[in-house]
Every structure is written in structure tokens, then in C-alpha cells.
């Protein structure tokens, strides 16, 4: 019986730990993101960020497996607590680099101290832009930065 009791206690602690982690995760899919690589998930990403940024806990914004199309986006702080961005899937830019002509960055974090970005893939579709540049075309845009951290200390 002692082994069963010890197992029960460990199981309970693991279960509670998992619930705490789940309670502080903000999954972009729960905010409307579609992991098909075609549907614009920018609005869902911003909604998840806003909820996580305003959390009283130490939140994790979760991008699960799948491919998420995101247009130019700015994640702004400061947030109530340290932010963690857990990317388990792929964040992908639109095929056309022209959508960045009026923006300085594709993905920008501004004023988010102690930001932690973990895992995944961020695909800015730079090959489309560079094929324009190296193809001898003269009407190629200057280009945008793919991933920018601005005023993000530590």
C-alpha cells in the first residue's frame, strides 16, 4: 500500500503542475488562429498576446504545431509579467513581400523586457524577396526586417 500511496502523491503533484501550466498558456488557436498556412491569423495572434500580456501569472503564448500565416504584426509591452513565446509549429509570412512595403518589420516586439522565445520555425519567405533582388529587377522594395526586438531589455 505504501508504494500505491507514494505513486498517488506523485501523480497528484504532476497533475497539479500540469494544471498550473495549462492555466497560464494562451494558445493562439483558442483565439481563432487557423493552422493551415493560408488563413490570416494575425488578429488571433494579437488577441492571444493581449490576453497573455495582461495576465497576472507568468504567461506563455503558445503557437502549437501547424503552420500559421501572419501579416506584419507588432507585439507591444510592457506586460504585467515576463512573457514567453513557445513556438511548436511554424509562423509564416505571406508569399508576397509587397505586403511589407508600409512596415519596417514583419514581426516586431516593442517594450517587452525579459521576453523569452522558444522553439519552432519563423519563415519570412525571404526567398521571394531575394529572387526579385537577384533577378535583376529594378522595382524591388527596400525590404522589411523579419524579426525585430525593440526596447526589449535583458
UniProtKB/TrEMBL annotation:
Domain of life of the native organism: Eukaryota
Asked if the Swiss-Prot or TrEMBL record annotates the protein with the keyword Acetylation, the reply is: no
Name the SUPFAM superfamilies on file. Pectin lyase-like (SSF51126)
- Note the InterPro entries from the entry: Glyco_hydro_28, Pectin_lyas_fold, Pectin_lyase_fold/virulence
Regions crossing the membrane: 12-29
User: Its Gene Ontology molecular function terms?
Assistant: polygalacturonase activity
Q: Name the UniProt key words of this record, in alphabetical order.
A: Cell wall, Cell wall biogenesis/degradation, Glycosidase, Hydrolase, Membrane, Secreted, Transmembrane, Transmembrane helix
The listed locations are: Secreted, Cell wall
Gene3D superfamilies in alphabetical order: Single-stranded right-handed beta-helix, Pectin lyase-like (2.160.20.10)
What processes in GO biological process is this protein linked to?
Answer: carbohydrate metabolic process; cell wall organization
Instruction: Read off the PANTHER family from this record.
Output: PTHR31375
Q: Which family does it belong to?
A: Belongs to the glycosyl hydrolase 28 family.
What is the protein's given name?
Polygalacturonase
